[in-house]
């Protein structure tokens, strides 16, 4: 009994420590306290706790050997691409940062699955702190977008730092509401969580946290399709095909009307108005020009398609200089394609893209096979992974946006704890 209690305690504290570690550079209040110190301390604590419970983690890992092989092959391509094309222009610390930080984060995510509810509680707790800060801001100024800039509700006062905090706020609130839905174990909490969902969606729209808004909507669509999938796979596939066709038609119709012909309020803060203003503005720093420019560079060098142009070469080719690792950012570290799959194709070519795409899709497909076995918390953990996957393809950077690796590994860990159709035993997660 004592051994079991210790195992539960270690698993819970492991999940708390590793979740704090992966969010240390994202959670704004940590920035005010000292995000680097919190990151270092939580990583150290996480490594110690993982080491203390290595045996059950290792046993679980044996059930996802296929995913481990894909991970190994993908990062092998990353290394080869760097050695062949990047070594002369990009410091080796950039590669070592990717391998070390990503490796640690993948281990952390996989280990956290053993006490999943603690991960969701940390996410929900961080979102609650943001809600409290937003409420205080609204009471002080009469609204969340009045008074000081919404980005600077934490009072940092440096525009160069807080200019994108509305996206950070959107991210934390998005994963927070998904965590709340996953933790809703009774009718009252379910009603409260579902009631809060449209409020969060409207708020994200209002402050133009577009990445979080699209990611949250995509997660909800995914959850809807899983419900339909459990009912009928054929109906699900037909519905998906119909939606794709409808989206293609809608894009075709919209493309016939140039964005410059659409009148838009120059000061409206909502997501649609801000998007239209960006479409009407030729600024090369906006998403669409960045994607078009990156794609043009890829297709104009077909000889580099097999292994790409080299890891970390995007900012070098763009004239911003070489990137470095997470704890020593440079000017080049601030510039990336804002789409992790596009960046992988640019850096590592078709070889890296195929392996990375396989790696990111496998957890979703494996989850669908086991969906009926998943608890509510486990289903919403997968939805949070979808949230991160979508956001990474809108605003992600492969080397630095390691939240994707964490939630990918977390979902893989949840899958490892479930029986497959061939297995006869079930590896249960530790209750929170």
Q: Your description of this structure?
A:
By secondary structure, the protein is mainly α. Helices cover 70% and strands 0% of the residues. The chain is globular, with a radius of gyration of 22 Å. 40% of the residues are buried.
Per DSSP E runs of 2 or more residues, the count of β-strands stands at 0
Which residues form runs of ≥5 with pLDDT under 50?
A: 420-426
Q: Using only CA atoms, what is the Rg?
A: 22 Å
Through-space gap between termini: 16 Å
Mean pLDDT: 84
Q: Which range does the strand content fall in? A: under 5%
Shape, per Cα inertia axes = globular
Helix content: over 70%
Helix and strand succession?
Answer: HHHHHHHHHHHHHHHHHH
What is the oligomeric state here? single chain
Number of helices: 18
| Class based on secondary structure composition and strand pairing | mainly alpha
The largest sheet is: none
Search tags:
single chain, mainly alpha, 18 helices
In short:
The chain has 432 residues and is mainly α.
Task: Summarize the topology.
Layout: H1 2-23, H2 28-33, H3 35-52, H4 54-61, H5 65-86, H6 92-112, H7 116-141, H8 159-162, H9 165-183, H10 187-206, H11 210-231, H12 233-255, H13 271-280, H14 287-299, H15 313-317, H16 340-369, H17 376-395, H18 403-416
């Amino acid at each position: 009994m004592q051994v079991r209690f210790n195992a539960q305690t270690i698993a819970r504290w492991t999940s708390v420590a590793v979740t704090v570690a992966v969010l240390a550079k994202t959670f704004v209040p940590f920035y005010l306290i000292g995000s680097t110190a919190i990151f270092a301390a939580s990583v150290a604590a996480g490594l110690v706790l993982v080491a203390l419970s290595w045996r059950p983690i290792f046993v679980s890992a044996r059930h996802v050997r296929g995913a481990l092989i894909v991970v190994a092959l993908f990062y092998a391509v990353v290394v080869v691409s760097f050695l062949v094309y990047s070594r002369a222009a990009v410091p080796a610390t950039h590669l070592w940062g990717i391998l070390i930080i990503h490796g640690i984060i993948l281990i952390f995510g996989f280990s956290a699955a053993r006490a999943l509810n603690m991960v969701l509680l940390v996410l929900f707790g961080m979102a609650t702190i943001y809600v409290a800060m937003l409420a205080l801001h609204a009471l002080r100024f009469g609204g969340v977008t009045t008074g000081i800039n919404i980005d600077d509700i934490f009072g940092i006062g440096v525009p160069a730092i807080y200019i994108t905090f509305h996206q950070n706020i959107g991210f934390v609130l998005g994963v927070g509401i998904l965590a709340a839905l996953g933790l809703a174990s009774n009718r009252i909490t379910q009603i409260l969580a579902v009631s809060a969902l449209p409020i969060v969606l409207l708020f994200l729209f209002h402050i133009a946290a577009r990445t979080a808004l699209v990611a949250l909507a995509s997660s909800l669509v995914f959850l809807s399709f899983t419900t339909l999938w459990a009912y009928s796979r054929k109906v699900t596939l037909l519905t998906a095909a119909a939606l794709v066709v409808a989206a293609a038609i809608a894009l075709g119709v919209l493309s016939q009307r140039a964005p410059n012909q659409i009148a838009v309020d120059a000061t409206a803060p909502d997501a649609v108005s801000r998007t239209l203003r960006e479409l009407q503005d030729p600024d090369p720093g906006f998403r669409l020009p960045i994607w078009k420019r990156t794609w043009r560079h890829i297709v104009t060098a077909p000889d580099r398609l097999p292994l790409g142009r080299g890891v970390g070469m995007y900012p070098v080719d763009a004239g911003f200089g070489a990137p470095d690792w997470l704890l020593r950012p440079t000017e080049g570290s601030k510039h990336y394609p804002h789409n992790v799959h596009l960046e992988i194709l640019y850096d590592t070519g078709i070889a890296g893209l195929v392996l990375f795409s396989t790696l990111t899709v496998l957890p979703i497909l494996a989850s669908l096979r086991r969906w009926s076995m998943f608890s509510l918390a486990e289903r919403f953990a997968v939805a949070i992974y979808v949230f991160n996957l979508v956001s990474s393809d809108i605003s992600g950077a492969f080397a630095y946006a390691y939240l994707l690796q964490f939630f990918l590994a977390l979902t893989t860990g949840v899958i490892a704890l479930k029986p497959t159709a061939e297995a006869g035993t079930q590896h249960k997660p530790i209750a929170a």
